[in-house]
Amino acid sequence: MEAVRGSLKNLNRFEASRVGSTIRRVTKRKRVAFVLSGGGPLGGVQVGMLRALVETGIKPDLVLGCSVGAINGAAFAAEPNLRGIQRLERIWGRLADGNPDLMANTRLVPLIVELGRKGEAFSTQDNLRMLLEEESPARHFSDLAVPFGCVATDMETAGEYWFTDGDLIPAVLASSCLPGVYPPVEMEGRRLYDGGVARELPVGKALELGATDIYILQVGHLEGRDAELKRPFDALVHAYWASRIARLEDEISSVEGHCNVYRLPAGDVPRLRFDDFSLSRELADEAYEASAVYLDAHSS
Question: What is the DSSP string of 121-160?
Fold first, then answer.
């Protein structure tokens, strides 16, 4: 565990895109990594997956997260046990109930109007910051029980910006700063936003840090989309989906054959508006059931 912390601390946050040439495997013993993707309101899926992993007795040596996966990953790394899962369930239950409402301003006027107005973003991260400050048992990376890292995107370089030490909540806010919804986070002279723009599923990073067994907690929607285009907006969404899936599959294929990869199933995930957290409890339950069956089959 300390060897992983050492490798994480050596990660150059300002040149993360070139980190592959600077990090060596810490040991050859079995090392388990949980990698949590982005996914916005679908983040409840990861809560169910984490519960299934904990109940199966699978413990991580390393947790990496991006966007909503940074939120869930940091909370889990602070308490990687059933009590930590219960905390996450409470957090997502609050979000389902609109307490707090993370994107209140996005529903005041039609989305098409919001897209055309001036300014950097629809909303602020004030409510998300408040939620993290109320619920997080850790304030610094050093407070975490399991080594953790999260990624943001540097607006100027379009490269990865990794957080592995220092203040925890600002790092999580930067990693989960959805472009257009929240204004960029300014830290150390840099403007940062959602890590999913640069690297939504950092399984390659887990391999670089010595992982031998990688559990992928991806929230779903990797299946095909309807190619019928009725509006220009449909074409934009389909193009984004195609680009995203290609990057995800390339990332996963880059580590297959070099370590054991387990892709936990999300279950039947509905398509939700980016600010709709109302089904968080149901998403967690669905993913728990699917992942529990998957893990049981693989363990036997």
Answer: -SS-SHHHHHHHHHH-S-SBGGG-SS-EEEEEEETTT--E
